[in-house]
Write a structure and sequence with these properties.
This protein is mainly alpha-helical. The protein is 68% helix and 6% strand. Helix 8 (153-173) packs antiparallel against helix 10.
């Protein structure tokens, strides 16, 4: 009877299920056209991480802009520029890990979806200025909030874990594009701000994203008691 409560509260997948969810997340990120809407999640959390870094370092966010191909921009004023520029990729990976972690807590699925939906709606109200970004953010808010009308918690937990893994995988893959781009992107800007070569920043982001994926695995492998 002592172990029954953790089993009721926990939504930690088995190791086999984890690898199936990871494979599913990986395949979705590689599918032409189909993967693009899912890249909006990583792009949103990437840009919101820039914005959070700006606010925490004394600056402000003036606008967030998202594009159909999964790219995005965050416009800020003030704050500590190196921290703001650095935060996008690791921030997205951290968001992905946190979503995965919360999705291993069966009782917290509605709380998690509600917080994510409110975060997107807040960004929509405060920082969306163009119709395309408004449309994308409304779509993301619907994805988070619509499932609250259903009671299939086990399925919702699984889908949310897949979403978290997709965000981590996209955060892992996105910086590699910067290896092929000279003088553009966050790494190039950081190089100008710090005199540290751009490729070092890209490697750091890749290592951090891999660490977040490993942390997801550790959550499964350790079979810790559920959150809360």
């Amino acid at each position: 009877m002592h172990d029954a409560l953790p089993n009721k509260l926990s939504a930690i997948p088995s190791k086999g299920r984890f690898f199936l969810e990871l494979l599913f997340a990986f395949l979705i990120t590689k599918l032409p056209f189909i993967s693009i809407p899912f890249k909006w999640f990583e792009s949103y959390f990437h840009e919101i991480s820039h914005g959070i870094a700006a606010i925490l370092s004394g600056g402000i966010v003036t606008k967030i802009q998202l594009f159909p191909n999964g790219a995005g921009l965050c416009f800020t004023q003030g704050g500590f520029a190196p921290l703001i520029t650095f935060s996008g990729y690791p921030g997205a990976a951290l968001w992905g890990y946190m979503i995965f972690l919360l999705a291993t807590w069966r009782a917290g699925i509605r709380f998690t979806l509600g917080i994510l939906g409110i975060t997107v709606i807040g960004s929509l109200i405060l920082w969306a200025r163009d119709l395309l970004t408004i449309g994308i953010l409304i779509s993301l808010a619907v994805v988070f909030l619509l499932p609250l009308k259903f009671d299939h918690n086990a399925l919702l937990n699984s889908l949310l874990r897949v979403m978290g893994l997709m965000i981590v995988l996209n955060a892992m893959a996105s910086p590699t594009v910067l290896f092929r781009v000279v003088g553009q992107g966050d790494a190039a800007k950081l190089s100008q701000l710090t005199w540290i070569p751009a490729w070092i920043w890209v490697i750091m982001w890749l290592i951090f994203s891999c660490f977040m994926l490993w942390m997801c695995w550790k959550r499964v492998d350790d079979k810790k008691l559920p959150i809360g």
